[in-house]
């Protein structure tokens, strides 16, 4: 028997959790992300807000223009992660392999547990029922022969929907006369290129496979396969160790011109990268610095390093790169580690290792003391809390206002 895959996608997840926990929000346009007075974008919104044209990734100012009477809220990621773990507990019961795409979305290989399409339908119904009964949330479920078809199926009847696509032929019949953008992984830029070449529908892709491949190369080969209903990918559980890079960044509510403050922000971001890196047991062989200036010009700098997982070492390399860039007002700053591996492959003596650790520990204590004196905050005692996204954001914004006196 070929594989049977379930794709589960929660309906407006963040907003749904907030409405569940606060019934007064139900029936109102709810927009999760930045506040209208802040810089930022929409993380998600409920279906009432979508009626006004609001959607994920929209600039928050535009969302407010479209829906000025909406309820705007910051996301509570700790809450959403906790609910996500409960969802995973339900989903994993029925899958031999689970591949999580986000907190609220997953592919489940139910081939063994189901044994047949009828068994798979029962699993899909059970997942929807348990999600509703146990967590008071709704999800849309797609059941199909492949990952792409399952993803397409879950989108077909949202919200709170169910749809199945059993064969490549059924997938092709469903998609044939739809726009190329309806194929999963075909984004806006690829769509623009295809449209410019007169390729508008999935049928056009099938009829002009050579043109698509000539124009888009390997991506074109993949797209033509999808247009034929072919997708042999397996559900692959994600391992944190498979990450290619780890980074943290922050967008300031007001542009920052003082680069001494940027160093303070970089230090906290670097410690967050260390926390994530050590938690999954990885080392990085390169440090990246990312800046977006006030004029939206973005730059990225990178520097190869000995494999490390130290926030202090990350910070020191990032600061060196920061000192070499143009000193224009900054809107966003980020730092990261790349070329990750599971081992520290450096050839270093025990004495040198101890000396380096002592130096970094001293630098950490001195830097925390400096920050505490400058901002009147207990960084040493609250560093663990700062690793959480919302707390990190609030802390750095407080620091920015304190530093500038605004």
What does this structure look like?
- The chain is α+β, with helices and mostly antiparallel strands and 406 residues long.
- It has three domains: 1-166, 2-Layer Sandwich (Alpha-Beta Plaits); 172-227, DNA polymerase, domain 1; 240-404, DNA polymerase, Y-family, little finger domain (Dna Ligase, domain 1, 2-Layer Sandwich), CATH 3.30.1490.
- Helices cover 47% and strands 21% of the residues.
- It contains 17 helices and twelve strands.
- The strands form three sheets. A five-stranded mixed beta sheet has the order 5-6-1-7-8.
- Strand 7, helix 7 (147-156) and strand 8 form a beta-alpha-beta unit.
- The longest helix has 26 residues, at 350-375.
- It is globular, with a radius of gyration of 24 Å.
- The chain starts with a strand and ends with a helix.
- Residues 347-353 have low confidence and may be disordered.
Determine and state the CATH class of the largest domain. Alpha Beta
Sketch the major β-sheet.
5 strands, mixed
The assembly state of the depicted protein chains is single chain
Large-scale geometry: globular
Q: Over all CA atoms, what is the radius of gyration? A: 24 Å
Average pLDDT taken over every residue: 91
Strand tally, please?
12
In the CATH hierarchy, the third-tier topology of the largest domain is known as Alpha-Beta Plaits
Structural class: alpha+beta
Query: Order of strands across the widest beta sheet?
Result: 5-6-1-7-8
């Amino acid at each position: 028997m070929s594989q049977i895959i379930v794709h589960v996608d929660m309906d407006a997840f963040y907003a749904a959790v907030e409405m569940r926990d606060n019934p007064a929000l139900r029936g109102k346009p709810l927009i999760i992300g930045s506040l209208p007075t802040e810089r930022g974008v929409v993380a998600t919104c409920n279906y009432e807000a979508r009626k006004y044209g609001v959607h994920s990734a929209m600039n928050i100012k535009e969302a407010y223009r479209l829906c000025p009477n909406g309820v705007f809220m910051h996301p509570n990621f700790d809450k959403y992660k906790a609910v996500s773990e409960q969802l995973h507990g339900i989903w994993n019961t029925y899958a031999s392999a689970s591949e999580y795409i986000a907190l609220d979305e997953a592919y489940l290989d139910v081939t063994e547990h189901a044994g047949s399409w009828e068994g798979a339908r029962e699993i899909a119904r059970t997942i929807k029922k348990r999600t509703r009964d146990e967590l008071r949330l709704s999800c849309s479920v797609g059941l199909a022969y492949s990952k792409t078809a399952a993803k397409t199926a879950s989108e077909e009847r949202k919200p709170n929907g169910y749809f199945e696509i059993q064969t490549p032929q059924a997938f092709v019949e469903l998609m044939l006369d739809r726009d190329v953008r309806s194929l999963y992984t075909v984004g806006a830029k690829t769509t623009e290129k295809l449209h410019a070449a007169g390729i508008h529908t999935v049928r056009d892709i099938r009829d002009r496979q050579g043109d698509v491949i000539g124009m888009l190369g390997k991506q074109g080969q993949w797209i033509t396969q999808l247009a034929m209903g072919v997708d042999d990918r397996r559900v692959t559980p994600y391992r944190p160790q498979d990450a290619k890079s780890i980074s943290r960044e922050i967008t300031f509510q007001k542009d920052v011109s003082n680069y001494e403050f940027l160093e303070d922000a970089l230090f906290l971001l670097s410690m967050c990268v260390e926390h994530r890196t050590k938690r999954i047991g990885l080392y990085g062989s390169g440090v990246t610095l990312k800046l977006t200036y006030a004029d939206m010009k973005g730059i990225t700098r990178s520097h190869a390093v000995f494999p490390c997982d130290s926030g202090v070492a990350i910070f020191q390399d990032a600061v060196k790169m920061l000192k070499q860039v143009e000193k224009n007002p900054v809107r966003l700053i980020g730092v990261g580690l790349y070329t990750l591996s599971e081992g520290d492959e450096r050839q270093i003596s025990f004495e040198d290792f101890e000396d380096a650790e002592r130096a970094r520990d001293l630098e950490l204590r001195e830097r925390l003391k400096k920050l505490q004196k400058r901002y009147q905050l207990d960084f040493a005692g609250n560093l663990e809390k700062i690793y959480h996204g919302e707390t990190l954001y609030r802390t750095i914004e407080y620091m920015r206002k304190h530093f500038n006196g605004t």
